[in-house]
Amino acid sequence: QKNSCILPEDLKNFYLMTDGFQMTWSVKTDNTPMPLGSMVINSVSKLCRLGGSPMYALPNAPTLADLEDDTDEEGNGDKPEKPHFDSRSLIFELDPCNGNGKVCLVYKHAKPVVSPDTEIWFLDRALYWHFLTKTFTAYYRLLITHLGLPQWQYAFTSYGVSPQAKQWFNMYKPITINTALLSEEADSFVNKLDPNKVFKSKNKTPVIKKKTPSQAAGSQKSHTSMTFSKTSSPGGNSSKK
Question: Per the record, where are the segments of Polar residues compositional bias (predicted)?
Answer without folding.
Answer: 213-241
